[in-house]
Amino acid sequence: MLEALTTLSPNQYSLVYNSLSFGIATFAAATIFFWFGRSQVSIEYKTVLTITGLVTFIALYHYFRMFQSFEAAVTLTNGVVEATGKEFNSSYRYVDWLLTVPLLLIELILVMRLTQSETVSRSTSLGIAAALMIALGYLGEASGSINSTRLIWGALSTIPFLYIVYTLFVGLGDAIKLQPDNVQGLVMRARNLTVASWFFYPIVYFAPFVLSGAGSSGAFVMIQVGYTTADLVAKAGFGLLIYMIAVRKSAASVR
Amino acid sequence: MLEALTTLSPNQYSLVYNSLSFGIATFAAATIFFWFGRSQVSIEYKTVLTITGLVTFIALYHYFRMFQSFEAAVTLTNGVVEATGKEFNSSYRYVDWLLTVPLLLIELILVMRLTQSETVSRSTSLGIAAALMIALGYLGEASGSINSTRLIWGALSTIPFLYIVYTLFVGLGDAIKLQPDNVQGLVMRARNLTVASWFFYPIVYFAPFVLSGAGSSGAFVMIQVGYTTADLVAKAGFGLLIYMIAVRKSAASVR
Q1: Do the Cβ atoms of B81 and B10 come closer than 8 Å?
Q2: Quick one: which of A166, B62, B105, B255 is 20 to 30 A from B68 by CA?
Q3: What residues in chain B have per-residue pLDDT under 70?
Q4: How does DSSP classify residue A203?
Q5: Distance from C-alpha of A116 to C-alpha of B84, rounded to nearest angstrom
Q6: What's the rounded Cα separation, in Å, for the pair A57 and B98?
Q7: b/e sequence A55-76, b meaning 16+ C-beta within 10 Å
Q8: Which residues, at least 6 apart from A151, have a Cβ–Cβ distance to it below 8 Å?
Q9: Dist. CA B169–CA B196, nearest whole Å
Q10: Whole-angstrom Cα Rg for chain A
Q11: What is the pairing mode between strands B74-77 and A80-83?
Q12: Rounded distance, CA B181 to CA A125, Å?
């Protein structure tokens, strides 16, 4: 990690710096938008919007921490990038996902309003699979530049990942068909966006193998900007679809 | 950029410093005003005021960051301006516009309450054009003092800019005629203010060519104070018109 930071060019530095700041601004705005939206939906959808805003709020906290950590670890003075020697804590991303990914899955389940027992069983199995997926991925990421270790943990993490994708596609397929007409398309889009945006993460995770090795500055920038983009789509973009579903379903019910 | 900072006079330093602080104060006040206004409009206009406040909130965040960055990059001690060598991150403006300009266009579309499909199609095409305009302008601004590069990217950025202006004038012209009588004038004024305030940006962007070159301290001050003025008009001033339209339309509908 340190090695990658010392070889950052000024442009690479600015790109990581500005994408982290962009994350802060977007997640703050999204959180406020979702929480204000609570007053515009009927009572059974208020919890969904609370959680949608919590996901972006937790992300806001971690992006703020990462921004500070990056500022402390690397400086740009007189056009020269220098690593201060302080650790850039990349684990914030995994701590964030450990909290937000189960919540994202619960958002999707809640907005569909399945039966109470199905809501609980699906939330539990998907939540556990998500936590497992992230914990295994973390062990690989924490290994830093050792490529074979990263590969093995990454491959293990792919097992719960595929289970979740399968459940979202096949398991929730029937439930989607039971949604009201005016939101069926939106729910399907939310499900597809979840799957599509999630494929970003393994791509970013394994990209350093194809690129110039996990320790290089190019790989570092790719990982930071790639994960930030994926987070923005999976949390704020996905949340916007959940918000639209909640608003439409509320309008359809008696107010 | 650094070169421009080292030659700032104490007066120039104060002008930039105070205009950034003025931006912070105005955007904070505007945000609170718009969000309080949510309780005074009917339910279909609450989202418009949420977004109007989000635009000034996002601007508030970036002006705060710019103020901090300016303070870290330049000091005024014993009447002498000195550059510390730390980078003044001028990219904050572009990161801000990337988020706020599409939202500003969505504000105008939402307050008009077009059909659902027209709202989505217009928001999408204008949003993409706005993002493209800003990204191209950023590439020119990031090139720093190299004048021909700034000129080429600026010229390219003008293409989506003109598309947006054309759409606002011609495309939305018919929709404005369908607005209720008591707000038609206001909606037209909001549309005109958008176009007028937006012409500030290319003027500020290209002004350094007429003045003393993009690297000089005079050009630096012109850019900072010019963009700040344009932001205040386009975000807080425009937002005030949107607020008035939302309040009048709410009064006309049954409460």
Answers
A1: yes
A2: B105
A3: 1-2, 144-146, 211-215, 253-255
A4: H
A5: 61
A6: 21
A7: bbbbbbbbbbebbebbeebbeb
A8: A140, A209
A9: 11
A10: 19
A11: unpaired
A12: 56
When CB atoms are compared, the residue of A26, A40, A77 closest to B46 is A40
> A45 is written with which tokens?
């959808």
Closest Cβ opposite residue B58 in set A25, A37, A75 = A25
Of A65, A77, A83, nearest to A24 (Cα)? Answer: A65
Is the ipTM higher than 0.90? The answer is no
What mean pLDDT do residues A221-233 have? 91
Give the residue on A whose Cα is nearest the Cα of B63. Answer: A25
Question: Which residue of chain B is at minimal alpha-carbon distance from A36?
Answer: B50
Overall size of chain A counted in residues? 255
B13 CB burial (10 A radius; 0-12, 13-18, 19+) = buried
Query: Cα distance from A74 to chain B (closest Cα, Å)?
Result: 12
Asked whether the beta carbons of A93 and A227 are under 8 A apart, the reply is yes
Q: Which residue has the tokens 């379903």?
A: A249
Whether A219 and A4 have beta carbons less than 8 Å apart is answered as yes
Q: What is the DSSP letter of B168?
A: I
* Helix B238-252 with B10-37: angle, nearest 10 deg: 10
Most confident of A83-87, A178-182, B53-57: B53-57
The verdict on B91 touching A (C-beta cutoff 8 Å) is yes
8 Å CB contact of A36 and B46: yes
A29 contact residues in B (CB cutoff 8 A): 54, 57-58, 99
Percent of chain B residues past pLDDT 70, beyond the cut: 95
Question: Closest approach of chain B CAs to the CA of A131, in angstroms?
Answer: 32
B99:A39 CB<8 A: no
Place of tokens 């009447």: B79
Q: Are A86 and A67 in contact (CB under 8 A)?
A: no
Work out the burial of residue B63: count CB atoms within 10 Å of its CB; fewer than 13 is exposed, 13-18 middle, 19 or more buried: buried
Report d(CA A63, CA B153) in Å as an integer: 31
CB A223 within 8 A of CB A208: yes
Of all residues in chain A, the one with the smallest CA distance to B99 is A26
How far, in Å, CA of B78 to CA of A116, rounded?
70
Which ranges constitute the DSSP H helices of A143-254?
147-166, 173-177, 181-210, 217-231, 238-252
Which is nearest to B164 in space by CA: B119, B130, B208, B139? B130
Element (H, E) at A47: helix A46-73
Decide if A25 and B85 are in contact by the 8 Å CB cutoff. Answer: no
